[in-house]
Request: fold
Amino acid sequence: MNENCTPTTTSIPLWIVILCLLISLVGIADHDLWTPDEPREAAIMLSMSRTGDLIIPDLAGVPFVEKPPLYYIVGAGALRLFGPVLGATPALRLTSALWGLGALAMTWLLARRLLGREQGVLAMVLLATMPGFVHVTHWMLVDNALLFFVTAALWCFTEAYIGSRLGFLPWAAVFTGGAFLSKGFIGPLIILLGWLGLVFSWGRQVGWRGMRRPRSLGLHGLALILCLALMLSWMLALRVVGGPDLWNEWFWANHFGRFSGGATQLGHMQPPWYYLPVITVYLLPWLVIVLVGIKNLLAVLLRRQMTPADRVLAAWALGGLLVLSITATKRDIYLSVLLPAFAMIGAQVLHAPMTKQLQDTLWLWVGCMLGGLLVFTGAPLLGAQARLLTGGLGWYQGIAGLTLLVCCLLLGIFRRPSSGVPPFFHRLLAATALFYISGLTILFPMVDRIKSYGPVFRDMADRVAADPSTRVAGATHVAGATHVAGWRFDETTRAGFYYYCDLVFPALSDINDLNQVLERRHSRFDGILALSRNFPPKSETLPPWRVREEVRMGPRRALQWIEGARQTTDNGRRTTENKQTPDHERSTKNRLLMPNR
Reply:
């Protein structure tokens, strides 16, 4: 039989499913914390594991209330449980991978209920091989917890309404509360969109009388109470423990301000069409399949022939995309909460035999994969810079070459189809999973050579500690003192010193204090640490200063130790040292300043 006539959902072999699931576990232990989010998230979870404060997240001694604390609580527990065995960074990144695997499981359950058993597996593997999902689940991001809870809540609502099992409503409420405790109101809002689609279908199925039955009303009331209890438990605790300032910062600035655009100080302000180019990358290589599915959804909407699955997926994917687009603050990772819906839309399309046009489009992805593997294999031959990134010829290139050979064998037999050849989609899926596994294994260490900031923070901490004028505590976790302050540190710098060096430098942000430090008349400090991009302050006239030490943080960032220029005497005349003459001739000792309690 011609394989073009074979439905894609013909039992995907278990070994291919396992390969797709393994993608989430590859590369979580072989690289450092990466900006922009991981240093901050890791430092918060480290602090929470030490202090046991489960209400207000803390970033290097400063309350951090952009988001509720559930993701950090789970990460702090994982750090205590797995940290001594795996190491701190792999243990924390493992939590993101587990959230991602949980989201895959929930996607399978939800798609199985809405679309059927085989489409459930198909939706799961489509999601597992989307670049957006791979990106988010390999990062320490609260969006991983949000993705899990939103998908789990909608699965429970689907079981309650489509499966006529109203006993799932309390569980749906628990997962909705978890979505709020992960990232605030955006989680329940996305769930509400899918819930409206489900309730509409349920109402048409059981009628108004069925919806008003005592058991139905009682379970809906219980679910509402559970959801509100979970949400209010933290909100009230924040208001009582944190006080009005922290409450206003979280409630007004980080929610209403982000939605309306009033919180411009938080950044990430983007136009409404921002997500259109992002989603084209996040849905690869299944973009065309998803677009066909969206076209089919719009067609049945116009004909008023939507199924319950069509309603919930349209509300979740398209309604969610609309909500995220009209929100003032935007980041590509915010789209992750919609990816299961798009995966299920694609699974609906692949339930039918794959057309030749779709196959020809997917061959473009095949060319990209094979080309990428070829580049990985021959990267050390591309020049000195490429050799520096790859570490020269080694086993990474062997992995890439072997994967290239296997992918060619998997896909090359497509030219002569026979009854014993697996469907093209199955072979493409296996090759895609192998491409991700080998690509992440090779690419992460290469990127880490550029984005790893741990050695930079340790180096600067050692230089400061080696200075004779620095008073050093006798042991870790005993308060000490330093004569160096941090000038307008960003979150990454504060988090990096805390996570890697167990240091919190006193914060300095007032220009008058800075002038006193550079004039060497400040009562506490005679130097500052600053990022080169933040110093000197614009439109400010400063006393003479010099860069005493400098360490590079990638190609565009530098961390500097700055102090006032010393006045010297030359033949009776006073002269000033050069402003930017780094002094790197100091010995370094592995000591810690101001360890945290």
In short: The chain has three domains: 35-263+270-350, 356-451, 455-576. The radius of gyration is 28 Å.
